[in-house]
Amino acid sequence: MTKEVYAVKIIKKKKTPKKSYNFEKMVKNEIKYLSIMSHENIIKFKDFFEDKNKFYIVLEKCRKFLSKNKNTKNIKLLDSGMAKRVNCEYLTELCGSPHYISPELIRKKYTMSSDIWALGVMVFFMLTGKYPFEGKNTPKVVVLQLKHTKLDEILNKNINWKGKEFSSLSIEAVDFLKKLLERNEKKRLTAYQALHHPWITSQVG
């Protein structure tokens, strides 16, 4: 017996058959990709087991660190339930958490650039404490489309970049958000460009 300490992600199973099947499929998908991915910023998978009521995913235990620590090795990707191996030009399946869905994902023709949009939503939330596209309920956020004339907030709402929530942010931070949340995916930052944006390099340099 080793003295190593691990973390366990415990997930309750769904009770209804249809929800249970889809949910189990997502959990197994997460295990599949965690077990084959290897990177210093991806949490290490150790083991998996289940019982009648729960799934248990055994992972490396991440040490705590201060929020001001700029070492990127301390940042770990944890959730990969919707990960997908890309072997085609476009993806067409509508999936993802409502607030993070990109405009092109709503149109069901998207690329990995949708992940950059989702990153923009995450950074926006971290810096302002709210989502860029709130909506009063999930259907309004995701798809509010009647006879192809009404589209949801993600496709139409303009962000007021001069709002008070941005007053304490640097010009570089706001520029970073704007370029991540660019509706035209061809003009949106790539992962490489995002990593080399002045706001990022000033934080980790």
UniProtKB/TrEMBL annotation:
Residues annotated as domain Protein kinase? 1-200
Print the keywords alphabetically. ATP-binding, Kinase, Nucleotide-binding, Serine/threonine-protein kinase, Transferase
Which domain of life does this protein belong to? Answer: Eukaryota
Entry-linked SUPFAM superfamilies: Protein kinase-like (PK-like) (SSF56112)
Does Nucleotide-binding show up as a keyword for this record? Answer: yes
Gene Ontology MF annotations = ATP binding; protein serine/threonine kinase activity
Q: Gene3D superfamilies, from UniProt?
A: Phosphorylase Kinase, domain 1 (3.30.200.20), Transferase(Phosphotransferase) domain 1 (1.10.510.10)
The name of this protein is Protein kinase domain-containing protein
UniProt organism field: Plasmodium falciparum (isolate HB3)
